[in-house]
Write a structure and sequence with these properties.
alpha+beta, Chloramphenicol Acetyltransferase, globular, seven-stranded mixed β-sheet, 460 residues, six-stranded mixed β-sheet
């Protein structure tokens, strides 16, 4: 029997990569949404690319390094540093000191990696080297990019960015610009827009006040030991979505639920059962909702790469959530109702709330989960000249028992769907899997063969 190949990554010395041309030296303010304490962390994405015979004359590390430097001319605040302003308000010193760039080589091919490309990525620590201090908030680079060559000619691009500077759509916009510049464009097709002042309390007159329970839901058992977690990734393709829809009343009694709402509701129910909450305990799911089309009109033309996200919460007593005749229908309606509150007035209210309360963090507790949909943002479409990635999206899936991330994924049967990594204590995970299997099992009369490469349509 042949010896198992060893996985090894050789990292070169990290370098600071600045803009390719001189950029404005100035201090920029952040929005009140950017600067909430719950976003003062770095989030990661990763993209895996196969070799392209047509690109043999071009080297991916050099091409992406050069394109990053060009993109930083347009997105020059990303090459700056965060500093403290008045009242604990963070600001960006646009000093052009640069981002971390790491060049690396790996002993594996794309085929060797297999399912390791799906989140949570098995080799995340190697594909995104942690430069000492690089995950700090103040005075350090706001982004790190590692490009790793594979022995097959493919490569991996992994990125972490300070969430204060950009949300998922904002980072995707930047990465798309890098891809366009790498392929010879003279400028990005979408020009970046800063305008963070538009989402500050001093700019938005308050018209309606909403409750923002997502920043302070009362809970009895507040923590889950982060050192005692196991992870499983759950795939929701055509068969799984069909099975879940069987458990809802058919139209026209109800409007068809979106795939995001269905998957999120299913996970919320299974998680509540798995963690065995008392019936009177409050549980919640908090949805990250893009509001570029619901905020100030100036944000609606595209290009804004700051955090334009609000977090409505669906809240219920655990006993009510689990004891009703049709729990999936009940929970889907709770999620739909929470999301339906989001309008221009809701955005104003949340900005005012954040400002008046010192920009508090979102609730992260045993009884609540924050759900982010990265499945339609476009990381699976990013092209640096070598074509679309085998996988592109979240690297760690949140890496937390209180965070859930939807990622676009194609399984081994060629079916497109949504992959959701879940993190729970081992005993709870076993119960979670048992409950999940009930939701995704087709009724015997409905078991059919799903043709390969069926496209799963997902919408909010």
């Amino acid at each position: 029997m042949a010896a198992k190949k060893s996985f090894v990554v050789w990292h070169k010395e990290p370098e600071l990569l600045g803009p390719a041309k001189p950029t404005p030296q100035e201090i920029k303010e952040l929005s009140d949404i950017d600067d909430q304490k719950g976003l003062r962390f770095h989030f990661c994405v990763i993209m895996f690319y196969r070799a392209n015979p047509l690109m043999k004359a071009k080297e991916p590390v050099e091409a992406i390094r050069d394109a990053l430097a060009e993109a930083l001319v347009w997105y020059y605040p990303l090459a700056g540093r965060l500093i403290h302003g008045p009242k604990d308000k963070l600001m960006v010193d646009c000093c052009a000191q640069g981002i971390w760039f790491i060049e690396a080589d790996c002993s594996f091919s794309m085929d060797d990696l297999g399912d390791a490309v799906k989140p949570p990525c098995l080799y995340s620590n190697e594909f995104l080297y942690e430069v000492p201090g690089s995950y700090e908030i103040l005075g350090c680079p706001l982004m790190a990019v590692q490009v790793t060559r594979l022995i097959c000619g493919g490569f991996v691009v992994a990125i972490h960015v300070n969430h204060v500077l950009a949300d998922g759509l904002g980072l995707a916009q930047f990465v798309k610009a890098v891809g366009e510049l790498a392929q010879g464009a003279s400028s990005p097709s979408t020009k970046p827009v800063w305008r963070r002042e538009l989402l500050t309390a001093k700019h938005l007159p308050l018209q309606t006040t909403y409750d923002h329970t997502e920043y302070g839901i009362v809970t009895h058992n507040s923590t889950i030991d982060p050192d005692n977690l196991v992870s499983r990734s759950f795939f929701f393709g055509p068969k799984e979505m069909k099975a879940m829809r069987q458990k809802l009343p058919p139209p026209p009694q109800t409007q068809p639920a979106s795939n995001f709402d269905m998957i999120t509701a299913c996970i919320w129910i299974c998680r509540t059962r798995a963690l065995e909450f008392d019936g009177d305990e409050t549980v919640a799911v908090i949805c990250a909702i893009n509001v570029r089309d619901k905020g100030p009109p100036e944000l609606r033309g595209g290009g804004y790469y700051g955090n334009a996200v609000v977090f409505p919460a669906a809240v219920a007593k655990a006993g009510r959530l689990l004891s009703c005749d049709s729990p999936l229908e009940y929970v889907v309606k709770l999620i739909e109702k929470a999301k339906s509150r989001v309008c221009e007035d809701y955005v104003r209210s949340e900005v005012k709330f954040l400002d008046s309360k010192g920009r508090p963090p979102l609730l992260r507790s045993r009884s609540s989960i924050i759900v982010t949909d990265l499945s339609r943002i476009g990381f699976d479409e990013m092209d640096f000249g070598w074509g679309k990635p085998v996988y592109g999206g979240t690297m760690d899936g949140g890496g937390s028992a209180t965070a859930i991330t939807h990622a676009r994924y194609r399984n081994s049967d060629g079916q497109d769907g949504v992959l959701v990594p879940v993190f729970l204590p081992a005993a709870a995970m076993k119960r979670f899997e048992e409950e999940m299997n009930k939701f995704i099992a087709l009724e015997p009369s409905e078991v059919i063969e799903i043709p390969p490469k069926s496209l799963l349509k997902s919408s909010l």
